[in-house]
Amino acid sequence: MTKLFLLTLLFQSLIAVSEHHGSGQSVAPPIAGGTTPAAPSSAAQEFLDAHNKVRAEVGVGPLKWSIMLANATSIITRYQRDKRSCSFANLSSINYGQLQLLFRGLIAIPPQVAVDIWVAEKKFYNYANNSCILGHECFSYTQVVWKNSLELGLVVLKLLAPTTTLF
Prior knowledge:
Layout: E1 2-17, H1 42-57, E2 64-65, H2 67-82, E3 97-105, H3 111-119, E4 125-126, E5 131-132, H4 139-145, E6 149-166
Parallel strand pairs: 2-6
Antiparallel strand pairs: 1-3, 1-6, 4-5
Helix pairs in contact: 1-3
C-alpha cells in the first residue's frame, strides 16, 4: 500500500504602500525596528526579485524586503494552518495590499511561477481607465505593480495532506 501526499502551498504576502489604495490614509507606522532590512531567505529573495522584475517592466520602483510584514504574514498563515484551514485568510480589515495563492499538487512550485500566476491577470487590466475588464479579476496583478507600494513581506506554508491510497 502506498499513500500519496498532496503538497499544499499557501503563499501569502503583505505589501506596504505609501497610501492605502484610494483612501488617502497613510500606512500605519512600522513597529520600532520592525522594518530593519534583515536578509530575506533565498525563496523570499526569489519572490522579491520576481516582483521587482515585473515592476521594472511597467516603470515603477522596486520593493524592499520587510521583516515586519514577513512576520505579520507568518502569523496569519500559521493561524490558517493551525485551524486546519488551507484556504485564503480574510484580510479585508488590514491596511496593506495582499496577495494569496493556494497551490495543490505533487510538487512544489518555484516563487517565479507563483508571481507569474498573479501577473497573468495583466491581460484583464485596462490601463486607459485603471480598472479590470468587466467580468474579470486583475487585483493580484495591480497589487504586484501598484506604484505606491514600498515593501514586501511574505511566507510560504507547506502542508502535507494524504489524498489517495494506492493498493
